[in-house]
Protein backbone atom coordinates (compact mmCIF):
# COMPACT_ATOMS: atom_id res chain seq x y z
CA UNK A 1 0.00 0.00 0.00
CA UNK A 2 1.28 3.45 -0.95
CA UNK A 3 2.26 5.71 1.93
CA UNK A 4 0.12 8.85 2.15
CA UNK A 5 1.92 12.17 2.52
CA UNK A 6 0.37 15.54 3.38
CA UNK A 7 2.27 18.62 2.19
CA UNK A 8 1.97 21.65 4.51
CA UNK A 9 3.49 24.48 2.46
CA UNK A 10 2.18 27.97 1.66
CA UNK A 11 4.18 28.44 -1.56
CA UNK A 12 2.11 26.75 -4.29
CA UNK A 13 5.02 26.27 -6.73
CA UNK A 14 7.17 24.55 -4.09
CA UNK A 15 4.23 22.42 -2.93
CA UNK A 16 3.37 21.38 -6.49
CA UNK A 17 7.00 20.45 -7.25
CA UNK A 18 7.00 18.32 -4.11
CA UNK A 19 3.76 16.62 -5.18
CA UNK A 20 5.19 15.75 -8.62
CA UNK A 21 8.42 14.33 -7.14
CA UNK A 22 6.57 12.26 -4.54
CA UNK A 23 4.02 10.81 -6.94
CA UNK A 24 6.79 9.96 -9.39
CA UNK A 25 8.54 8.00 -6.58
CA UNK A 26 5.35 6.04 -5.79
CA UNK A 27 3.99 8.00 -2.84
CA UNK A 28 0.37 9.18 -2.62
CA UNK A 29 -0.06 12.90 -1.89
CA UNK A 30 -3.31 13.22 0.05
CA UNK A 31 -3.44 17.02 0.10
CA UNK A 32 -1.67 20.38 0.20
CA UNK A 33 -2.29 22.79 3.12
CA UNK A 34 -1.05 26.40 3.25
CA UNK A 35 -1.80 26.88 6.97
CA UNK A 36 -1.98 25.05 10.28
CA UNK A 37 -5.78 25.28 10.36
CA UNK A 38 -6.15 23.72 6.90
CA UNK A 39 -3.55 21.09 7.77
CA UNK A 40 -5.49 19.97 10.85
CA UNK A 41 -8.66 19.68 8.74
CA UNK A 42 -6.89 17.46 6.18
CA UNK A 43 -5.23 15.38 8.88
CA UNK A 44 -8.63 14.52 10.40
CA UNK A 45 -10.15 13.51 7.03
CA UNK A 46 -7.20 12.08 5.09
CA UNK A 47 -5.19 10.42 7.91
CA UNK A 48 -1.73 10.83 6.34
CA UNK A 49 1.21 8.54 7.18
CA UNK A 50 3.77 11.36 6.83
CA UNK A 51 3.77 15.14 6.74
CA UNK A 52 6.19 17.45 4.93
CA UNK A 53 6.04 20.63 6.98
CA UNK A 54 7.19 24.15 6.19
CA UNK A 55 8.06 26.33 9.20
CA UNK A 56 6.64 29.69 8.08
CA UNK A 57 3.01 29.36 6.96
CA UNK A 58 -0.05 31.49 6.33
CA UNK A 59 -1.77 32.77 9.48
CA UNK A 60 -0.55 33.24 13.03
CA UNK A 61 0.60 29.65 13.54
CA UNK A 62 3.88 28.17 12.32
CA UNK A 63 5.03 24.67 11.54
CA UNK A 64 6.59 24.62 15.00
CA UNK A 65 3.10 25.06 16.51
CA UNK A 66 1.74 22.19 14.42
CA UNK A 67 4.72 19.95 15.23
CA UNK A 68 3.70 19.62 18.87
CA UNK A 69 0.25 18.38 17.90
CA UNK A 70 1.73 15.96 15.36
CA UNK A 71 3.95 14.45 18.05
CA UNK A 72 0.88 13.94 20.29
CA UNK A 73 -0.98 12.33 17.36
CA UNK A 74 1.98 10.08 16.60
CA UNK A 75 2.33 11.34 13.01
CA UNK A 76 5.96 11.53 11.82
CA UNK A 77 7.02 14.70 9.99
CA UNK A 78 9.90 16.26 8.09
CA UNK A 79 10.56 20.00 8.06
CA UNK A 80 11.10 21.78 4.75
CA UNK A 81 12.52 25.27 5.13
CA UNK A 82 14.75 27.80 3.42
CA UNK A 83 16.16 28.84 6.80
CA UNK A 84 18.94 26.81 8.44
CA UNK A 85 20.37 29.28 10.95
CA UNK A 86 21.22 27.75 14.30
CA UNK A 87 18.25 29.31 16.10
CA UNK A 88 15.78 27.74 13.66
CA UNK A 89 17.58 24.39 13.76
CA UNK A 90 17.61 24.29 17.56
CA UNK A 91 13.92 25.21 17.74
CA UNK A 92 13.09 22.56 15.13
CA UNK A 93 15.23 19.95 16.88
CA UNK A 94 13.32 20.50 20.13
CA UNK A 95 10.11 19.30 18.40
CA UNK A 96 11.77 15.96 17.47
CA UNK A 97 11.26 15.85 13.68
CA UNK A 98 12.33 12.86 11.62
CA UNK A 99 14.25 15.01 9.17
CA UNK A 100 14.92 18.51 7.86
CA UNK A 101 15.08 19.40 4.17
CA UNK A 102 16.61 22.69 3.03
CA UNK A 103 15.10 24.65 0.13
CA UNK A 104 15.96 24.53 -2.70
CA UNK A 105 16.47 20.78 -2.93
CA UNK A 106 16.80 18.14 -5.62
CA UNK A 107 14.54 15.12 -6.11
CA UNK A 108 17.41 12.90 -4.93
CA UNK A 109 17.72 14.94 -1.70
CA UNK A 110 14.03 14.45 -0.99
CA UNK A 111 14.21 10.68 -1.54
CA UNK A 112 17.31 10.33 0.64
CA UNK A 113 15.70 12.33 3.46
CA UNK A 114 12.52 10.23 3.27
CA UNK A 115 14.64 7.05 3.46
CA UNK A 116 16.45 8.47 6.52
CA UNK A 117 13.15 9.53 8.09
CA UNK A 118 11.62 6.07 7.64
CA UNK A 119 14.71 4.51 9.21
CA UNK A 120 14.49 6.90 12.16
CA UNK A 121 10.77 6.19 12.55
CA UNK A 122 11.39 2.43 12.67
CA UNK A 123 14.03 2.91 15.37
CA UNK A 124 11.86 5.36 17.34
CA UNK A 125 8.96 2.89 17.36
CA UNK A 126 11.35 0.15 18.51
CA UNK A 127 12.73 2.22 21.39
CA UNK A 128 9.64 4.36 22.02
CA UNK A 129 11.81 7.49 21.99
CA UNK A 130 9.11 10.00 21.08
CA UNK A 131 6.89 9.55 24.12
CA UNK A 132 7.95 12.94 25.48
CA UNK A 133 10.06 15.83 24.12
CA UNK A 134 13.66 15.57 25.30
CA UNK A 135 13.65 19.25 26.27
CA UNK A 136 10.98 18.65 28.91
CA UNK A 137 12.86 15.60 30.21
CA UNK A 138 15.96 17.72 30.73
CA UNK A 139 13.96 20.36 32.63
CA UNK A 140 12.32 17.65 34.72
CA UNK A 141 15.70 16.24 35.68
CA UNK A 142 17.14 19.64 36.65
CA UNK A 143 14.21 20.83 38.79
CA UNK A 144 14.31 17.63 40.85
CA UNK A 145 17.99 18.06 41.72
CA UNK A 146 18.88 18.66 45.36
CA UNK A 147 20.95 21.72 44.54
CA UNK A 148 20.69 25.46 45.30
CA UNK A 149 18.11 27.37 43.27
CA UNK A 150 20.73 29.58 41.62
CA UNK A 151 22.64 26.54 40.36
CA UNK A 152 19.51 24.90 38.94
CA UNK A 153 18.51 28.15 37.22
CA UNK A 154 21.90 28.29 35.51
CA UNK A 155 21.45 24.72 34.26
CA UNK A 156 17.89 25.48 33.12
CA UNK A 157 19.19 28.52 31.22
CA UNK A 158 21.79 26.38 29.45
CA UNK A 159 19.04 24.03 28.24
CA UNK A 160 16.58 26.84 27.41
CA UNK A 161 18.95 29.15 25.52
CA UNK A 162 19.40 27.02 22.36
CA UNK A 163 15.61 26.80 21.98
CA UNK A 164 14.80 30.44 22.84
CA UNK A 165 18.05 32.46 22.63
CA UNK A 166 18.36 35.23 25.23
CA UNK A 167 20.97 37.55 26.70
CA UNK A 168 18.77 38.56 29.63
CA UNK A 169 15.75 36.77 31.12
CA UNK A 170 13.36 38.48 33.52
CA UNK A 171 10.79 36.32 35.34
CA UNK A 172 8.23 38.18 37.45
CA UNK A 173 4.78 37.80 39.01
CA UNK A 174 2.47 40.18 37.12
CA UNK A 175 -0.93 39.55 38.75
CA UNK A 176 -1.15 40.08 41.68
CA UNK A 177 1.87 42.32 41.16
CA UNK A 178 4.98 41.65 43.22
CA UNK A 179 8.68 42.04 42.51
CA UNK A 180 10.00 40.45 45.70
CA UNK A 181 10.84 37.18 43.99
CA UNK A 182 11.87 38.49 40.59
CA UNK A 183 14.39 36.29 38.82
CA UNK A 184 17.02 37.97 36.64
CA UNK A 185 19.36 35.84 34.54
CA UNK A 186 22.12 37.43 32.47
CA UNK A 187 24.26 35.71 29.85
CA UNK A 188 27.91 36.75 29.90
CA UNK A 189 30.06 37.07 26.73
CA UNK A 190 31.65 33.66 27.40
CA UNK A 191 28.21 32.01 27.27
CA UNK A 192 27.82 31.39 31.00
CA UNK A 193 24.69 32.35 32.93
CA UNK A 194 24.47 34.23 36.23
CA UNK A 195 21.45 34.87 38.42
CA UNK A 196 21.02 38.29 40.01
CA UNK A 197 18.64 39.27 42.78
CA UNK A 198 17.02 42.70 42.52
CA UNK A 199 19.41 44.31 44.99
CA UNK A 200 22.50 43.22 43.05
CA UNK A 201 20.91 44.12 39.72
CA UNK A 202 19.97 47.65 40.87
CA UNK A 203 23.55 48.28 42.00
CA UNK A 204 24.92 47.05 38.70
CA UNK A 205 22.68 49.20 36.49
CA UNK A 206 22.74 52.16 38.95
CA UNK A 207 18.99 52.43 39.57
CA UNK A 208 17.62 53.51 42.96
CA UNK A 209 15.17 51.42 44.98
CA UNK A 210 12.69 54.26 44.78
CA UNK A 211 12.77 54.37 40.97
CA UNK A 212 12.59 50.59 40.79
CA UNK A 213 9.42 50.49 42.91
CA UNK A 214 7.84 53.30 40.88
CA UNK A 215 8.69 51.74 37.52
CA UNK A 216 7.55 48.25 38.57
CA UNK A 217 4.27 49.14 40.26
CA UNK A 218 2.45 47.60 37.29
CA UNK A 219 3.27 44.61 35.13
CA UNK A 220 4.76 44.93 31.68
CA UNK A 221 1.87 45.98 29.44
CA UNK A 222 2.09 44.23 26.09
CA UNK A 223 -1.57 44.22 24.90
CA UNK A 224 -1.43 40.57 23.88
CA UNK A 225 1.66 41.13 21.73
CA UNK A 226 4.55 38.73 22.30
CA UNK A 227 7.29 39.76 19.81
CA UNK A 228 9.08 43.11 20.10
CA UNK A 229 11.64 43.79 17.37
CA UNK A 230 12.88 47.09 15.93
CA UNK A 231 10.23 49.81 16.23
CA UNK A 232 8.06 47.70 18.58
CA UNK A 233 10.95 47.31 21.00
CA UNK A 234 11.76 51.02 20.90
CA UNK A 235 8.10 51.73 21.70
CA UNK A 236 8.23 49.24 24.58
CA UNK A 237 11.27 51.08 25.95
CA UNK A 238 9.40 54.38 25.90
CA UNK A 239 6.43 52.85 27.73
CA UNK A 240 8.54 51.06 30.37
CA UNK A 241 11.41 52.92 32.12
CA UNK A 242 12.51 49.61 33.64
CA UNK A 243 12.91 47.99 30.21
CA UNK A 244 14.75 51.13 29.10
CA UNK A 245 17.18 50.88 32.04
CA UNK A 246 17.83 47.18 31.40
CA UNK A 247 18.27 47.58 27.66
CA UNK A 248 20.60 50.59 28.03
CA UNK A 249 22.89 48.75 30.43
CA UNK A 250 22.92 45.35 28.69
CA UNK A 251 22.54 46.68 25.10
CA UNK A 252 19.28 44.79 24.51
CA UNK A 253 17.45 45.30 21.21
CA UNK A 254 14.51 42.86 21.13
CA UNK A 255 12.15 41.02 23.47
CA UNK A 256 9.81 38.03 23.60
CA UNK A 257 7.07 37.98 26.25
CA UNK A 258 5.06 34.97 27.37
CA UNK A 259 2.57 34.63 30.25
CA UNK A 260 1.98 31.57 32.42
CA UNK A 261 -1.14 31.15 34.60
CA UNK A 262 -0.63 29.18 37.81
CA UNK A 263 -3.57 28.88 40.21
CA UNK A 264 -5.10 32.20 39.08
CA UNK A 265 -1.75 33.97 39.41
CA UNK A 266 -0.12 35.36 36.28
CA UNK A 267 3.64 35.24 35.64
CA UNK A 268 5.69 36.77 32.85
CA UNK A 269 8.81 35.36 31.21
CA UNK A 270 10.48 38.21 29.29
CA UNK A 271 13.38 37.13 27.03
CA UNK A 272 15.72 39.90 25.80
CA UNK A 273 18.36 39.70 23.07
CA UNK A 274 21.17 41.88 21.72
CA UNK A 275 19.93 41.43 18.14
CA UNK A 276 17.20 43.80 16.94
CA UNK A 277 15.23 41.35 14.76
CA UNK A 278 15.83 37.95 16.35
CA UNK A 279 12.42 36.82 17.60
CA UNK A 280 9.86 35.35 15.20
CA UNK A 281 6.68 33.28 15.27
CA UNK A 282 8.94 30.23 15.50
CA UNK A 283 9.97 31.22 19.02
CA UNK A 284 6.39 31.83 20.17
CA UNK A 285 5.55 28.40 18.77
CA UNK A 286 8.37 26.80 20.76
CA UNK A 287 7.29 28.59 23.93
CA UNK A 288 3.71 27.40 23.42
CA UNK A 289 4.90 23.82 23.05
CA UNK A 290 6.97 23.91 26.19
CA UNK A 291 4.71 25.87 28.52
CA UNK A 292 4.51 22.77 30.72
CA UNK A 293 8.27 23.05 31.19
CA UNK A 294 7.95 26.73 32.20
CA UNK A 295 5.17 25.81 34.62
CA UNK A 296 7.46 23.18 36.15
CA UNK A 297 10.21 25.79 36.58
CA UNK A 298 7.79 28.14 38.35
CA UNK A 299 6.31 25.45 40.59
CA UNK A 300 9.43 23.51 41.54
CA UNK A 301 12.25 26.07 41.42
CA UNK A 302 11.20 29.71 41.57
CA UNK A 303 8.04 30.05 43.64
CA UNK A 304 8.04 26.98 45.86
CA UNK A 305 7.85 27.68 49.59
CA UNK A 306 11.25 26.19 50.43
CA UNK A 307 13.02 28.29 47.83
CA UNK A 308 15.49 29.73 50.34
CA UNK A 309 16.48 26.38 51.80
CA UNK A 310 19.96 25.43 50.63
CA UNK A 311 20.77 21.72 50.52
CA UNK A 312 23.94 20.88 52.45
CA UNK A 313 26.84 19.39 50.52
CA UNK A 314 27.01 15.58 50.70
CA UNK A 315 29.30 14.17 53.35
CA UNK A 316 32.57 12.98 51.87
CA UNK A 317 33.76 9.44 52.57
CA UNK A 318 36.25 9.04 55.38
CA UNK A 319 39.88 8.43 54.50
CA UNK A 320 39.82 4.82 55.60
CA UNK A 321 36.96 4.06 53.20
CA UNK A 322 39.25 4.97 50.30
CA UNK A 323 42.24 2.87 51.33
CA UNK A 324 43.11 0.37 48.61
CA UNK A 325 44.83 -2.79 49.84
CA UNK A 326 47.07 -4.12 47.06
CA UNK A 327 46.94 -7.69 48.34
CA UNK A 328 43.10 -7.66 48.59
CA UNK A 329 41.88 -4.75 46.48
CA UNK A 330 38.32 -3.47 46.90
CA UNK A 331 37.96 -1.83 43.50
CA UNK A 332 34.78 0.21 42.93
CA UNK A 333 32.04 -1.62 41.06
CA UNK A 334 31.95 -0.81 37.37
CA UNK A 335 29.73 -1.22 34.33
CA UNK A 336 31.90 -3.10 31.82
CA UNK A 337 34.94 -1.10 32.89
CA UNK A 338 33.09 2.24 33.25
CA UNK A 339 33.20 3.48 36.84
CA UNK A 340 30.49 5.64 38.40
CA UNK A 341 27.17 5.47 40.19
CA UNK A 342 25.64 8.89 39.40
CA UNK A 343 22.12 9.28 38.05
CA UNK A 344 23.27 10.85 34.78
CA UNK A 345 25.77 8.07 34.10
CA UNK A 346 23.19 5.40 34.86
CA UNK A 347 20.81 7.05 32.38
CA UNK A 348 23.52 6.66 29.71
CA UNK A 349 24.05 3.02 30.78
CA UNK A 350 20.32 2.27 30.37
CA UNK A 351 20.37 3.70 26.85
CA UNK A 352 23.50 1.71 26.07
CA UNK A 353 21.99 -1.58 27.25
CA UNK A 354 18.83 -0.87 25.26
CA UNK A 355 20.52 -0.18 21.94
CA UNK A 356 23.57 -2.47 22.10
CA UNK A 357 21.85 -5.73 20.97
CA UNK A 358 20.53 -4.05 17.81
CA UNK A 359 22.12 -2.65 14.65
CA UNK A 360 20.83 0.89 15.17
CA UNK A 361 23.24 3.77 14.46
CA UNK A 362 24.45 5.40 17.67
CA UNK A 363 25.79 8.94 18.11
CA UNK A 364 27.78 9.44 21.32
CA UNK A 365 27.86 13.06 22.48
CA UNK A 366 30.14 14.51 25.11
CA UNK A 367 33.10 16.73 25.86
CA UNK A 368 36.65 15.52 25.33
CA UNK A 369 37.75 13.14 28.07
CA UNK A 370 34.26 11.87 29.03
CA UNK A 371 34.91 8.32 27.78
CA UNK A 372 33.17 8.22 24.39
CA UNK A 373 35.49 5.52 23.00
CA UNK A 374 34.89 3.33 26.05
CA UNK A 375 31.13 3.60 25.47
CA UNK A 376 31.59 2.62 21.81
CA UNK A 377 33.65 -0.41 22.83
CA UNK A 378 30.97 -1.45 25.33
CA UNK A 379 28.20 -1.15 22.72
CA UNK A 380 30.16 -3.47 20.43
CA UNK A 381 31.01 -5.84 23.30
CA UNK A 382 27.30 -6.23 24.23
CA UNK A 383 26.15 -6.67 20.61
CA UNK A 384 25.78 -9.87 18.54
CA UNK A 385 28.78 -8.58 16.54
CA UNK A 386 31.16 -8.93 19.52
CA UNK A 387 33.15 -11.75 17.87
CA UNK A 388 33.71 -9.62 14.77
CA UNK A 389 36.08 -6.63 14.57
CA UNK A 390 35.49 -3.16 15.99
CA UNK A 391 37.44 -0.76 13.79
CA UNK A 392 38.15 2.67 15.30
CA UNK A 393 38.77 5.68 13.06
CA UNK A 394 39.79 9.09 14.41
CA UNK A 395 38.33 11.40 11.77
CA UNK A 396 40.36 14.35 13.10
CA UNK A 397 43.64 12.50 12.43
CA UNK A 398 42.89 11.45 8.84
CA UNK A 399 45.09 13.22 6.26
CA UNK A 400 42.86 15.35 4.02
CA UNK A 401 44.20 13.79 0.81
CA UNK A 402 43.88 10.19 2.02
CA UNK A 403 40.47 10.18 3.72
CA UNK A 404 38.65 8.24 0.99
CA UNK A 405 41.49 5.76 0.67
CA UNK A 406 41.58 5.22 4.47
CA UNK A 407 37.81 4.74 4.76
CA UNK A 408 36.93 2.93 1.53
CA UNK A 409 40.28 1.56 0.25
CA UNK A 410 41.93 1.86 -3.16
CA UNK A 411 43.05 -0.29 -6.06
CA UNK A 412 46.66 -0.54 -7.17
CA UNK A 413 47.53 2.43 -9.37
CA UNK A 414 44.47 4.43 -8.33
CA UNK A 415 46.68 7.47 -7.73
CA UNK A 416 50.36 8.38 -7.58
CA UNK A 417 51.95 6.33 -4.82
CA UNK A 418 49.22 3.66 -4.76
CA UNK A 419 51.67 0.79 -5.35
CA UNK A 420 49.38 -1.90 -4.00
CA UNK A 421 45.73 -2.53 -3.25
CA UNK A 422 44.50 -1.23 0.12
CA UNK A 423 41.53 -2.52 2.13
CA UNK A 424 39.68 0.41 3.71
CA UNK A 425 38.37 0.68 7.26
CA UNK A 426 34.76 -0.05 6.28
CA UNK A 427 35.77 -3.25 4.51
CA UNK A 428 37.91 -4.26 7.50
CA UNK A 429 34.86 -3.81 9.74
CA UNK A 430 32.59 -5.97 7.53
CA UNK A 431 30.40 -8.08 9.81
CA UNK A 432 31.39 -6.01 12.83
CA UNK A 433 31.23 -2.35 13.88
CA UNK A 434 33.04 0.82 12.88
CA UNK A 435 33.55 3.64 15.37
CA UNK A 436 33.99 7.03 13.69
CA UNK A 437 35.38 9.22 16.45
CA UNK A 438 35.17 13.02 16.11
CA UNK A 439 32.79 12.71 13.16
CA UNK A 440 32.35 16.50 13.21
CA UNK A 441 35.91 16.82 11.86
CA UNK A 442 35.16 14.92 8.65
CA UNK A 443 35.53 17.23 5.61
CA UNK A 444 32.36 18.14 3.75
CA UNK A 445 33.37 16.26 0.58
CA UNK A 446 33.91 13.01 2.49
CA UNK A 447 30.53 13.41 4.24
CA UNK A 448 28.76 13.00 0.88
CA UNK A 449 30.41 9.63 0.25
CA UNK A 450 29.84 8.50 3.84
CA UNK A 451 26.11 9.19 3.54
CA UNK A 452 25.97 7.13 0.34
CA UNK A 453 27.72 4.21 2.07
CA UNK A 454 25.27 4.39 4.99
CA UNK A 455 22.25 4.50 2.67
CA UNK A 456 23.35 1.96 0.06
CA UNK A 457 25.37 -0.28 2.41
CA UNK A 458 28.06 -0.64 -0.22
CA UNK A 459 31.51 0.78 -0.92
CA UNK A 460 33.63 1.38 -3.98
CA UNK A 461 37.40 1.47 -3.70
CA UNK A 462 39.22 4.39 -5.29
CA UNK A 463 40.20 3.40 -8.80
CA UNK A 464 37.79 0.46 -8.72
CA UNK A 465 34.99 -0.24 -11.18
CA UNK A 466 32.65 -2.26 -8.99
CA UNK A 467 30.86 -1.89 -5.66
CA UNK A 468 31.07 -4.24 -2.70
CA UNK A 469 28.21 -4.83 -0.25
CA UNK A 470 29.16 -4.42 3.40
CA UNK A 471 27.42 -5.24 6.66
CA UNK A 472 28.67 -2.74 9.24
CA UNK A 473 27.18 -1.17 12.34
CA UNK A 474 27.89 2.56 12.60
CA UNK A 475 28.87 4.15 15.93
CA UNK A 476 29.93 7.79 15.84
CA UNK A 477 31.06 10.33 18.43
CA UNK A 478 31.70 14.05 18.61
CA UNK A 479 32.49 16.79 21.11
CA UNK A 480 31.20 19.42 18.68
CA UNK A 481 27.74 20.99 18.47
CA UNK A 482 26.64 19.39 15.21
CA UNK A 483 23.61 21.69 14.88
CA UNK A 484 25.97 24.65 14.84
CA UNK A 485 28.22 22.86 12.36
CA UNK A 486 25.18 22.35 10.12
CA UNK A 487 24.07 25.99 10.41
CA UNK A 488 27.62 27.16 9.59
CA UNK A 489 27.70 24.96 6.49
CA UNK A 490 30.38 22.56 7.76
CA UNK A 491 28.25 19.45 8.24
CA UNK A 492 25.56 17.96 6.01
CA UNK A 493 22.06 18.17 7.43
CA UNK A 494 20.96 14.85 5.90
CA UNK A 495 24.02 13.08 7.33
CA UNK A 496 23.31 14.60 10.76
CA UNK A 497 19.79 13.15 10.74
CA UNK A 498 21.10 9.78 9.53
CA UNK A 499 23.65 9.55 12.36
CA UNK A 500 21.57 11.08 15.16
CA UNK A 501 19.09 8.20 15.35
CA UNK A 502 19.94 7.07 18.88
CA UNK A 503 22.01 9.69 20.72
CA UNK A 504 23.74 8.84 24.00
CA UNK A 505 24.90 11.95 25.86
CA UNK A 506 27.74 11.45 28.33
CA UNK A 507 27.78 13.74 31.36
CA UNK A 508 30.85 15.81 32.16
CA UNK A 509 32.79 15.04 35.32
CA UNK A 510 31.61 18.33 36.85
CA UNK A 511 28.03 17.05 36.42
CA UNK A 512 28.77 13.88 38.37
CA UNK A 513 31.22 14.86 41.08
CA UNK A 514 29.74 12.21 43.35
CA UNK A 515 31.70 9.69 41.24
CA UNK A 516 35.08 11.31 42.00
CA UNK A 517 35.78 9.22 45.18
CA UNK A 518 35.25 5.96 43.26
CA UNK A 519 37.34 7.17 40.34
CA UNK A 520 40.14 8.35 42.64
CA UNK A 521 40.13 4.95 44.37
CA UNK A 522 40.35 3.16 41.04
CA UNK A 523 43.25 5.28 39.78
CA UNK A 524 45.13 4.82 43.07
CA UNK A 525 44.86 1.07 42.58
CA UNK A 526 45.69 1.17 38.86
CA UNK A 527 48.78 3.38 39.04
CA UNK A 528 49.91 2.21 42.46
CA UNK A 529 50.01 -1.31 41.08
CA UNK A 530 52.03 -0.19 38.03
CA UNK A 531 54.63 1.75 39.98
CA UNK A 532 56.67 1.13 43.09
CA UNK A 533 54.65 3.79 44.97
CA UNK A 534 53.41 3.03 48.47
CA UNK A 535 50.24 5.14 48.00
CA UNK A 536 47.08 3.32 49.06
CA UNK A 537 44.63 6.13 49.91
CA UNK A 538 43.67 9.81 49.78
CA UNK A 539 42.80 12.23 52.58
CA UNK A 540 39.38 13.80 53.00
CA UNK A 541 40.85 17.27 52.47
CA UNK A 542 42.54 16.29 49.20
CA UNK A 543 39.39 14.54 48.01
CA UNK A 544 37.31 17.60 48.88
CA UNK A 545 39.67 19.71 46.76
CA UNK A 546 39.15 17.32 43.82
CA UNK A 547 35.38 17.74 44.15
CA UNK A 548 35.58 21.53 44.18
CA UNK A 549 37.42 21.65 40.85
CA UNK A 550 35.40 21.86 37.57
CA UNK A 551 37.50 19.42 35.48
CA UNK A 552 37.48 20.95 31.99
CA UNK A 553 39.45 17.89 30.79
CA UNK A 554 36.97 15.51 32.49
CA UNK A 555 37.99 11.94 33.45
CA UNK A 556 41.12 12.05 31.30
CA UNK A 557 42.35 15.09 33.25
CA UNK A 558 41.56 13.42 36.58
CA UNK A 559 43.40 10.26 35.54
CA UNK A 560 46.52 12.17 34.49
CA UNK A 561 46.48 14.21 37.69
CA UNK A 562 46.12 11.11 39.87
CA UNK A 563 48.96 9.35 38.02
CA UNK A 564 51.23 12.38 38.51
CA UNK A 565 50.17 12.83 42.16
CA UNK A 566 50.87 9.19 43.01
CA UNK A 567 54.42 9.51 41.67
CA UNK A 568 55.03 12.70 43.68
CA UNK A 569 53.50 11.48 46.97
CA UNK A 570 55.73 10.21 49.74
CA UNK A 571 54.02 7.79 52.09
CA UNK A 572 50.76 5.85 51.84
CA UNK A 573 48.18 8.65 51.70
CA UNK A 574 47.69 11.48 49.20
CA UNK A 575 47.28 14.65 51.25
CA UNK A 576 47.97 17.24 48.56
CA UNK A 577 46.77 17.62 44.96
CA UNK A 578 48.17 20.27 42.64
CA UNK A 579 45.23 21.66 40.62
CA UNK A 580 45.04 24.53 38.11
CA UNK A 581 43.32 27.67 39.35
CA UNK A 582 39.63 27.11 38.40
CA UNK A 583 38.96 30.85 38.14
CA UNK A 584 41.70 31.51 35.60
CA UNK A 585 40.58 32.34 32.07
CA UNK A 586 44.02 33.07 30.67
CA UNK A 587 46.79 30.73 29.63
CA UNK A 588 48.33 30.95 33.11
CA UNK A 589 46.61 31.44 36.44
CA UNK A 590 47.69 33.72 39.21
CA UNK A 591 49.92 31.01 40.70
CA UNK A 592 51.46 30.10 37.31
CA UNK A 593 49.48 26.90 36.75
CA UNK A 594 48.87 26.19 33.09
CA UNK A 595 45.21 26.14 32.00
CA UNK A 596 44.51 22.99 30.05
CA UNK A 597 43.57 23.62 26.42
CA UNK A 598 42.86 21.19 23.62
CA UNK A 599 45.24 21.02 20.66
CA UNK A 600 42.48 22.49 18.50
CA UNK A 601 42.04 25.46 20.86
CA UNK A 602 45.78 26.13 20.83
CA UNK A 603 45.99 25.84 17.03
CA UNK A 604 42.99 28.15 16.56
CA UNK A 605 44.45 30.74 18.96
CA UNK A 606 47.86 30.63 17.22
CA UNK A 607 46.40 31.01 13.70
CA UNK A 608 44.11 33.82 14.88
CA UNK A 609 47.06 35.71 16.40
CA UNK A 610 49.07 35.37 13.17
CA UNK A 611 46.08 36.55 11.07
CA UNK A 612 45.66 39.59 13.31
CA UNK A 613 49.36 40.36 12.98
CA UNK A 614 49.04 40.10 9.17
CA UNK A 615 45.79 42.15 9.21
CA UNK A 616 43.93 39.22 7.65
CA UNK A 617 46.35 38.68 4.75
CA UNK A 618 46.70 35.00 3.88
CA UNK A 619 48.50 34.80 0.50
CA UNK A 620 51.77 36.24 -0.74
CA UNK A 621 54.76 37.86 0.91
CA UNK A 622 54.16 38.71 4.54
CA UNK A 623 50.93 36.69 4.57
CA UNK A 624 49.91 34.29 7.32
CA UNK A 625 50.64 31.22 5.17
CA UNK A 626 54.24 32.35 4.64
CA UNK A 627 54.79 33.07 8.35
CA UNK A 628 53.29 29.71 9.38
CA UNK A 629 55.30 27.99 6.61
CA UNK A 630 52.31 26.06 5.25
CA UNK A 631 50.55 26.17 1.85
CA UNK A 632 47.82 28.81 1.64
CA UNK A 633 45.30 26.10 0.63
CA UNK A 634 46.07 24.19 3.84
CA UNK A 635 45.71 27.37 5.89
CA UNK A 636 42.34 28.13 4.26
CA UNK A 637 41.13 24.61 5.11
CA UNK A 638 42.22 25.05 8.73
CA UNK A 639 40.52 28.48 8.95
CA UNK A 640 37.25 26.95 7.75
CA UNK A 641 37.56 23.87 9.97
CA UNK A 642 38.35 25.92 13.10
CA UNK A 643 35.47 28.31 12.49
CA UNK A 644 37.63 31.45 12.21
CA UNK A 645 35.60 34.25 10.64
CA UNK A 646 36.86 37.54 9.21
CA UNK A 647 35.23 39.58 11.95
CA UNK A 648 37.38 37.78 14.55
CA UNK A 649 40.53 38.97 12.79
CA UNK A 650 39.75 42.68 13.19
From TrEMBL:
The keyword Metal-binding does not apply. The modification 4-aspartylphosphate is found at residue 54. Residues 4-118 form the Response regulatory domain. Coiled coil: none annotated. The keyword Transmembrane does not apply. Keywords: ATP-binding, DNA-binding, Nucleotide-binding, Phosphoprotein, Transcription, Transcription regulation. InterPro entries: AAA+_ATPase (IPR003593), AAA_lid_NorR (IPR058031), CheY-like_superfamily (IPR011006), Homeodomain-like_sf (IPR009057), P-loop_NTPase (IPR027417), Sig_transdc_resp-reg_receiver (IPR001789), Sigma_54_int (IPR002078), Sigma_54_int_dom_ATP-bd_1 (IPR025662). Residues 338-567 form the Sigma-54 factor interaction domain. This is Sigma 54-interacting transcriptional regulator. It comes from Pedobacter riviphilus.
